[in-house]
Amino acid sequence: MTSVAVVGTGAVGSMALWRLAERGIPAVGFDAYAPGHDRGAAGGESRIFRTAYKEGPEYVPLLREVRDLWSELERAAGRRLFTPVGGVTVGPREHPKIQAVLAAARAHDLPVETLTGKAAQDRAPEHPLREGEVMVADPGAGYLRPEPAVVAAAAAAERKGARIARYTPVTEVRQDATGVTVVTGDGEQRFTHAVLAPGPWARTLLPEAPIVAKAITSTWFPRRDEALFDPERCPIAIRVGEPAYSCFPSVDGTGVKVNLHVPWREIDSPDALTRSVPVAYVEQVARAVAATLPGLGPDPVRVATYADAFTPDGHGLLGRQGRTVLAAAFSGHGFKLAPVFGDIVADLVESGATTRGIGHLAPNRPLRRSP
User: Fold this and answer.
1) How distant, in Å, are the alpha carbons of 3, 130, 176, 180 from that of 322?
2) Chosen domain end from 270, 288, 310
3) 17 φ/ψ angles, rounded to the nearest 5 degrees
4) Is there a single domain that holds both residue 132 and residue 194?
5) In terms of Cα–Cα distance, which of 164, 159, 246, 155 is closest to 197?
6) How far apart are the first and last CA of the chain?
7) pLDDT tens, position by position, for the chain (371 residues)?
8) CA separation, residue 39 to residues 47, 49, 121, 183, 336 (Å)
9) Does one domain contain both 91 and 202?
10) Which of 93, 109, 239, 313 has the fewest CB atoms within 10 Å, i.e. is most exposed?
11) Is 76 contained in some domain?
12) DSSP for 107-165, written as a single string
């Protein structure tokens, strides 16, 4: 009889546990903390969801499918996890990332609009255009609530019979011809299969994999105008060019989250993550806000740092290797797609294959740094 260990119950691990449980497959989740904790990649209050995807059109079919799974999880949780406020990408008309958004939309016939002037101002007054800039509006975008979503998936899995070993870090996973051995401080347990979803702790279990953990910092700025950045109306935004950042509505009614897009610092382990932020970084974000977001105050009122795992080419690792399924290092693409990645994990455990297009995530692909 199939039995599965899911190592890590963050975004993808909790969703994998839920989708396995939905199929009636016995599964146990292991985590050094508990679902919804703030030490991994699923922190920070909000995550962008978008369908016109500048990172590659191969993601669009998965993004279309995952909306139904998010709705299913919302029904199971009895609460809203996705707010469909739309989204905009702002930047110079000829910028490669603007062109990549438009290319993804053309490839999959997505209903995006390219706006300038008054049309752009009416759509997103929070994000005024500078000379030579355009706004690409994606009506299918919005924002997700990461911490409640992870808790909801874990709870849904437990209601369906899955178990979660909280505060039980896994130190080793060994596989052989008949199954896998999971080693914790409490001893060893045997399963027929294991799912490795360790998030930013990937190097602990996969020391030879080309994965690095990085510290990502979010900042929240106060609103000058209470009519702007409304959590029910303001679109999520990505600005490309200089400066480059992502910006969210005021989810909590006070601060507006701005994530500056800069090279993140590598860290040895999330357990050693320094949560203090250099003044120079705060000043850099403040300059970006002053230059492009006149509706926000000059200084952040909140700063938070969390960890995530990245591959050299910026795409995750998802595939079956013997009796283990690797689901790691999604490099910033993981949360929005976590439910469908979890369902793909269940496919790979159950049959060894999936009908979904995940060739760009194959663990055995040549890994080269993206340009």
Assistant:
1) 15, 53, 8, 10
2) 310
3) -60, -45
4) no
5) 164
6) 46
7) 899 999 999 999 999 999 999 999 999 999 999 999 988 888 899 999 999 888 888 999 999 999 999 999 999 999 999 999 999 999 999 999 999 999 999 999 999 999 999 999 999 999 999 999 999 999 999 999 999 999 999 999 999 999 999 999 999 999 999 999 999 999 999 999 999 999 999 988 998 889 999 999 999 999 999 899 999 999 999 999 999 999 999 998 889 999 999 999 899 889 888 888 999 999 999 999 999 999 999 999 999 999 999 999 999 999 999 999 999 999 988 999 999 999 999 999 999 999 999 999 999 998 876 54
8) 16, 22, 38, 22, 18
9) no
10) 109
11) no
12) HTT---EEE-HHHHHHH-TTSPPPTTEEEEEETT-EEE-HHHHHHHHHHHHHHTT-EEE
User: Does the predicted model carry a pTM greater than 0.85?
Assistant: yes
User: Strand locations in 197-242, DSSP E?
Assistant: 212-222, 236-239
Q: Give the integer Cα–Cα distance in Å for 244 and 99.
A: 16
Q: Which residue has the tokens 């707010």?
A: 83
Q: Any bridge partners for residue 303, and if so which? A: 219
CB distance 142 to 85 below 8 Å: yes
Amino acid at position 103, single letter: A
Q: Which pair of structure tokens corresponds to residue 207?
A: 């020391």
User: Which residues constitute the domain of residue 126?
Assistant: 84-142+212-310
